[in-house]
Each structure stands twice: as structure tokens, then as C-alpha cells.
Amino acid sequence: MEFEEVTGLFGHPAWRLLRADNAPLVLTFCGAVFVDENERGVAEAVLVSRLDDQLYDLNERDLGPFPRPASEYLTEWTNNGWLRKYYPPGEGEPHFDATSALEKAVAWVRAPPARSFISTESRLGTIVDLLRQMAFGTETDPQARIDELSRERDEIDAQIARLRAGELEVLSPVALLDRYQQVEGMALDLLRDFREVEANLRELDRRFRQDVATAEGGNGELLASFLMDCEMIAESDQGQSFQAFFDYLLPPRRQEEPMKLLTQVNQLPQLDGNTNNNLLKVPLAWLQLPEVPRTRSVSSPSSCRGS
Questions:
Q1: Chain segment 8-22, per-residue pLDDT in tens
Q2: Residue 191: enclosing H or E segment and its boundaries?
Q3: Strand, coil or helix: what is 34?
Q4: In which order are the strands placed within the sheet that holds 83-86?
Q5: What does the radius of gyration of the chain's CA atoms come to, in whole angstroms?
Q6: Closest to 223 measured CA to CA, from 240, 205, 239, 236
Q7: What is the pLDDT of residues 138-149, one digit of tens each?
Q8: What angle separates helix 220-235 from helix 173-214, to the nearest 10 degrees?
Q9: pLDDT, tens digit, for every residue of 231-290?
Q10: 118-129: burial string, b at 16+ Cβ within 10 Å, e else
């Protein structure tokens, strides 16, 4: 990382949030609503009511002072780029959502404290599985692929034989917690990444509309430039990766499977006291996020919008 890169971050909304006087209020309140509870698109009245309660509690405990109304704090946080205020289609009441800058700041604040348990074994297994997928997925020798599949078949046959012989191996509570923490971290990281992609698409749409409003004469060149930007996003590594994600979730069976598995895992007695019920909202949040535009289907500015 270069010196200029670091100094350039001073103006980033996430950096400004960490240095703000009311950073503890923003991070604890918005972190609880939009990160811990995985809420998206919270109505203004609901958010104001919740913030009013928190401000009252903090002032009662002499942790303030926080003299302003809750609505003024929300306006300030929106202007600073920590919240997004918008009107859902067909609704007259504004809604709020977290920005990627807010989530970055929350993630950084939560990283430094020491944890009582840090998953390691499951992550090593994930690394090995990914390496195996890359090596096997790029193998062009048919016999090499047959040999690898035969090895996997032999391992499965050996497991079946052990089960028939009465040898049943189950994950220990430590191994379960190890894997649960990894799932939780990856699921929340995925939501943060989606919000950032969503913000990028929305910024592209905003710039296009601004250029159209200030342009003189025909808008043909602007539209062509916009569609080219859409195509670049769709064909980028990030765009293709996220499109593949949504393609994977397209069948209803695959949409239902993560929720069923999470519900089942959260009820495991071995994880008692170490589960996060808010994690059950994550699969629903995945489906609510905007699809990265397909290059072949881009026909109008609205097809490249992030909201």
C-alpha cells in the first residue's frame, strides 16, 4: 500500500465515520439494525422510533448528551454517506438502508477485540477444497479427471462400508462451532460485498441521469457511453461472479435449501448458546439484492440500475 493511497482514504465515508464525534452512536445503533439484524429498507417511522428509544436510554445513563431529535441524526448520517434514504416504488414514506461504507466501518470496529474461539480447522478444509476445485476444474486430460472421480468414489464407498459396519462418526461441538463461525462470517461478508456492488450500480445510474440533465442537444452519445459502462460491469470479474451467484440461486430448490439448512443447524443442541438467529435472514437478503445486468439484455438505462 502506497502513502498516497492511505492519505486518499481520509475522505472516504467509512474513515470519516470512524473519526466522527458520534461514531459510537452510529456504529452501535446502525450496526445493530442493519448488520446484526440484517434489516434492509427500514421505514423512517420505525427507524426514528428505535433511535429515539436508544437516545433516551443513553441520555438517562449519562452517556450523552444527545440533544437532537432522532430524525436530525438520520439526516446527518445520510448526508455523510453512512445511510441511504430512498422511496420504495408505490410508497410515500422514505426508507433507510446501510451503505457499504457503514458496513466497512462496523466490520473494522468488530475485528480488533480478541475472540474466545477462532475457527481454523474448517477454513483449512475450505482452502484445500477450493484448491482441489481449481486444479480439477482446469484439468484437460480426461483420464486424469476419471482418476480423480474414481478416487472420490472409492472414498464414498469406504464411508458407506464403515456406516454399514456400525462405525458412525459425528462432528464434535468444537468442530461444529468452528464451521458455524465460518458460515456466519462468509454469509455476512457476502452481504457487504453485495451492498458495495449495488452502490456501484446506483452511482453509475446517478451519473448517467446527471449527465442527461445537464447535456445540450442529443443524448445518443451519453446513452452509448452508459450502455458501454453497463457492459463493462457485466463482463467484469466481479459482475460475472455475482451473475453466476444469482444464476445458481435461480431454481426454487436452491433458494429453499440454505434456509432449511440454517434452520436445522441453528437447532442443533451442540451449538446451544452459540447460534445467531439473525443469520436466518441472510438467504432472504440475498434474494432481495439487485441482479448484475446481463450484457445481452441491456436495452435501457433502467436495466443497469442497482435499485
A1: 888 889 999 999 999
A2: helix 173-214
A3: helix
A4: 42-43, 95-98, 83-86
A5: 24
A6: 205
A7: 989 999 999 999
A8: 170
A9: 666 676 666 776 777 777 777 777 788 888 888 898 888 888 788 887 887 777 776 654
A10: ebeebbeeeeee
